[in-house]
Each structure stands twice: as C-alpha cells, then as structure tokens.
Amino acid sequence: MPGGLELAVIVGVIILLFGGKKIPELAKGLGKGIKDFKTAVKDDEKTEEKVAEVKEIKTDAKESITDAKTTTTTTAPKA
Predict the structure, then answer these.
(1) Residue 12 domain-assigned?
(2) Higher model confidence: residue 73 or residue 8?
(3) Residue 8 belongs to a domain
(4) Other Cβ atoms closer than 10 A to 79
C-alpha cells in the first residue's frame, strides 16, 4: 500500500495529466458507472429469482400431470 508521500505524488501527476476542471467530471462518470453496475447486478439477481420460480412451477406442473395420469390409469375401469 502506498504511503502518504507516494499518494501525494500520484494525486499531483493525475492533476497535471487531467487538469483541475476535468477531475470532477471523471469522478462523476466513475460514480455513475458504479451505480449503473450495481443496478445491473440487482436486476440480474431479480431475473435469476424469477427464472427459479418458473422452473419450480414447471416442476410442480409436471408432477401434477404425472400424478393425474397415474391416478387415472389405476382407477379407470377395465373393459
């Protein structure tokens, strides 16, 4: 981890490269990018939850159909 003097040199070089006016714009852009990333991660988690719910519903439906077929087959009168 850089020490105090090293951090001061790094900040000085950044100010020289980008200028004092450009740094707030860069920080704002970085903050917006982080916020967008977090939003995308949350949306992805919600999508995964919905997919899991749909898979569970499909599994339950398949089990119900299998049970219905078994019940119908075993209780149907023989001709």
Answers:
(1) yes
(2) 8
(3) yes
(4) 3
Query: What residue numbers bound the domain in which 54 lies?
Result: 4-73
**CA angle (30 as vertex; 44, 5 as ends), nearest 5:** 130
Instruction: Decide which of 3 and 32 is more confident.
Output: 32
Amino acid at site 22: K
Kindly report the number of other CB atoms within 10 A of residue 70's CB atom: 10
Task: Tell how far CA 76 is from the center of its chain.
Answer: 50
Is 79 a domain residue? no
pTM over 0.70: no
Q: How many structural domains does the chain have?
A: 1
Q: How far apart are CA 26 and CA 10, in angstroms?
A: 16
The pLDDT of residue 29 is: 92
Residue 76 Rama label (left phi>0; alpha psi -120 to 50; beta): beta
**Domain contains 78:** no
